[in-house]
Amino acid sequence: DANRSTTSPLAGLPSACHVLLDAKAKKGLTFEQISEQIGKPEVWTAALFYGQAKPDEETLQKLAQVLDIFPEVLQDGLGGSYVVHRGESWTWPPKDPVLYRLYEVLVVYGYSYKALIAEKFGDGIMSAIDFRTSVKRKADPKGDRVVITMDGKFLPYSLTGEGNAWSRESDA
């Protein structure tokens, strides 16, 4: 399969992810349709199919039912002791045009985002763990727009207190 060449980001996916992607294509379902049926966010669902999320047992059972896959196949490949290797399939900078545009957004606007976060919240970061994201289509007379929302919890840096990188106790 040309989609699984050794240079493709799909080449390094767990075999259960290939099973998910093949079943999705065979059923003709969108990530939105699947996410609604399993009760998970759409982007999280897509991330699971690309090996970037860890499902719980209930989600694996629902996926097996929705996609007509033997539950054992998903359990063996993505359940139990499966460890997610987030970001390992990336090449920097990305070569795929869509991924490169997203990278370009951070290159162009990254420091602006950082400055605005500091002005509005203080010294800290936006969590990518306590995080929600979505992709929507917005009609526009000049051409439809892609709306990507990033919604991460603000995590302040701390210069004082116990158990942080700046406390004397961390030197021990």
TrEMBL record:
Q: Which family does it belong to?
A: Belongs to the MBF1 family.
What lineage is this protein's organism placed in?
Eukaryota, Fungi, Dikarya, Basidiomycota, Agaricomycotina
Q: Which UniProt keywords apply?
A: Lyase
Identify the CDD domains for this entry. Answer: Cyanase_C, HTH_XRE
HTH cro/C1-type domain spans which residues? 19-74
> What is the native source organism of this protein?
Naganishia liquefaciens
Q: Which GO terms describe its molecular function?
A: cyanate hydratase activity; DNA binding
Name all Cyanate lyase C-terminal domain ranges.
88-158
Briefly state the protein's biological role: Transcriptional coactivator that stimulates GCN4-dependent transcriptional activity by bridging the DNA-binding region of GCN4 and TBP (SPT15), thereby recruiting TBP to GCN4-bound promoters. Involved in induction of the ribosome quality control (RQC) pathway; a pathway that degrades nascent peptide chains during problematic translation. Required to prevent stalled ribosomes from frameshifting.
Q: Which SUPFAM superfamilies match?
A: Cyanase C-terminal domain, lambda repressor-like DNA-binding domains
Q: Name the SMART domains for this protein.
A: Cyanate_lyase, HTH_XRE
Protein name (Swiss-Prot/TrEMBL): Cyanase
